[in-house]
Amino acid sequence: MKKLATLLVLVIAITTAGFASNGKDDKATYSVDTKASKVYWTGKKVAGEHTGYVLIESGKVHVSNNAVTSADIKMDMTSIEVTDLEGEWKDKLVAHLKNDDFFSVDKHAEAEFKITSFENNKVVGDLTIKGITNEVSFPAEVKIEGNELTASGTASIDRTKWDIRYGSGKFFSGLGDNMIKDEFEIKFELKATASEE
Asked: Which runs of consecutive H residues, i.e. helices, occur in the chain?
């Protein structure tokens, strides 16, 4: 009888250990490859649009059980580039985007996006531009293959929420063809590699 009781205890102990092992929370942190990742932007106006990108300064993506739980992406606003113009016109637009009419880069050289949740292919997070933080959400695709993580998604945001009012019909009248639309697109393209916690 004692042997049977001992055997039962061993079986229960082994089974419990097996369940505990299967329930382990596998966590990983992925470091963003700043050379292979960019944030693209598109700004539209009545007479057309402009496109460009901003380089990523640093970033970490936290994953648990193969699902993204949070992330912190820092963008270098001093790196803002225009891709649809060349020469003098490009230089003028870049300088204008960096001044106080738009991103006030001298005062706010860094922008940041912190993901607070990612469920059903929808990202929710806090976007900070010019020291102003607002929540944004948008669809995104994340793929994890071994030690590599790729992510992409496009958000459409109202720039006036970050005090970027230049050429906005909400705040200025009589703009005509010079009116710039309040909504602009930000497209994230990230590549990251797993690193030790």
From this structure: 2-22, 87-98
Tokens found for residue 196: 């030790």
81 touches 50 (CB < 8 A): no
DSSP 84: S
pTM for this one? 0.84
Query: pLDDT (tens digit, 9 = 90+) per residue, 63-122?
Result: 999 899 999 999 999 999 999 999 999 999 999 999 999 999 999 999 999 999 999 999
10 Å CB burial of residue 150 (0-12, 13-18, 19+) is: middle
Within 8 A by CB and 6+ apart from 192, the residues are 30, 31, 32, 33, 37, 59, 61, 148, 149, 150, 151
75 within 8 A of 34, measured Cβ to Cβ: no
Altogether, the residues listed in the chain come to a count of 197
Identity of the residue numbered 72: D
Q: For residue 167, what are the contacts with CB-CB under 8 A and spacing of at least 6?
A: 45, 175, 178, 179, 180
Closest CA relative to residue 194, chosen from 56, 47, 68: 68
Q: Strand, helix or coil at 90? A: helix
Q: Give the integer Cα–Cα distance in Å for 94 and 142.
A: 31
If one counts every other C-beta atom within 10 angstroms of the C-beta of residue 117, the result is 12
Give dist(CA 139, CA 154) in Å, integer: 7
